[in-house]
Design goal:
Layout lengths: L2 E7 L5 H10 L6 E3 L1 H10 L9 H7 L4 E7 L2 H20 L9 E4 L4 H7 L7 E3 L3 E5 L11 E5 L11 H13 L5 E5 L5 H8 L4 E6 L2 H13 L7 E5 L6 H8 L3 E7 L2 H14 E13 L3 H10 L2 E9 L2 E8 L1
Parallel strand pairs: 6-7, 8-9, 8-11, 9-10, 11-12
Antiparallel strand pairs: 1-3, 1-4, 2-3, 5-6, 12-14, 13-14
Helix pairs in contact: 1-4, 6-7, 10-11
Length: 323
């Protein structure tokens, strides 16, 4: 299997929070290069050094970074998209800019090459009882009675390959009723809110912290014949943008969905509580197994009653309603 090296530039102060969000996104192995540690080591052991190799010094005095590897296939693309989302959310929370620039480089691979090369691994996928995900560059080999969602995810999270996306789609199949309005927090490629409309929802408000994701989501809505009157996509941070939070809370949604990571879900719960209708449903996923209890406890503390916890692989989704 081929691998892609993903380097995320940060600061010494950013290593711990960055490692935490990567773990929540499903990354369990990381490499850390910390300039401060190396300088501290030299200072503390100065008396032991007669000579420090200048080449070694230059090599170690590079910017602090965290490195991870993702597989060069469809699953790896989903993982990279999840990493991008997690890092963007961390950057938005870092209001004092203590965690460095939090930018991502792909080892010896351009963004364009990565976006094109992984396509060979992404093929039509059936999810649940009603949905078929089809890459825009492929044709179906035979007719289907499933609802076809055509997608070009670009660099955004949401192709249907990841367990968390599948769990949310299956929950939407059961929850969506004709005429429902949907709020999608952390929309990525727009896959969940657009599919909700294809399932019969009247409209969706889709929000993502990454403006590029919002553009991709709008393109995917158009590909699937969804008008911009029904699909409203906006960029913003629902944890810090007061105007955006007020807009979200100005109406009640029968369905609120958030497929993100545990800490962001916990932070979103007060907003979700304000936004969901009295008889509505809150569907959330992106929760790695080790964090299920934390998220469940926070959900209950915010006045929700948990109806289902569904698991697939190392991931879980939670379906709940207001108590």
């Amino acid at each position: 299997m081929d691998w892609i090296l993903v380097t995320i530039y940060t600061s010494s102060e950013g290593i711990e929070p960055l490692s935490g969000v990567l773990y929540q996104a499903g990354i369990t192995g990381i490499e850390i290069e910390d300039e401060a540690d190396f300088k501290s080591f030299l200072e503390e052991n100065r008396e032991s050094w007669d000579y420090v190799d200048e080449d070694l010094l230059k090599e170690k005095e590079k910017e602090t970074c965290v490195k991870v590897y993702v597989s060069d296939n469809a699953s790896g693309h989903e993982m990279l998209s999840a990493i991008r989302t997690a890092v963007s959310e961390l950057a938005a929370r870092d209001t004092e800019k203590a965690f460095g620039r939090l930018e991502i480089d792909l080892g010896n691979v351009s963004e364009e090459d990565w976006a094109n090369n992984w396509k060979q691994y992404f093929h039509p996928t059936e999810i649940g009882e009603k949905i078929l995900i089809k890459p825009e560059w492929e044709e179906l080999s035979e007719p289907t009675d499933r609802i076809v969602f055509e997608v070009n995810p670009g660099m955004s999270f949401g192709t249907g390959s990841h367990e968390t996306t599948q769990l949310c789609i299956e929950a939407l199949e059961q929850a969506v009723k004709p005429g429902d309005e949907v709020l999608d927090l952390g929309c990525g490629s727009g896959i969940l809110s657009i599919i909700a409309i294809l399932l019969g929802a009247e409209s969706a408000l889709a929000i993502d912290i990454d403006p590029n994701a919002v553009d991709i989501a709008k393109d995917n809505a158009r590909k699937n014949g969804v008008s911009m009157d029904k699909f409203i996509a906006k960029a913003g941070n629902v944890l810090t943008d007061e105007a955006l939070m007020q807009e979200i809370r100005s109406k009640k949604y029968p369905i609120v969905v958030a497929n993100i990571v545990a800490d962001v879900i916990i932070g979103l719960l007060p907003t979700a509580k304000e936004a969901v209708a009295a008889d509505g449903v809150f569907i959330t996923s992106g929760i790695i197994s080790d964090r299920i209890e934390d998220v469940c406890a926070a959900i209950e503390e915010n006045g929700f009653v948990i109806e289902q916890v569904n698991r697939r692989g190392d991931w879980a989704s939670i379906i709940c309603r207001l108590g």
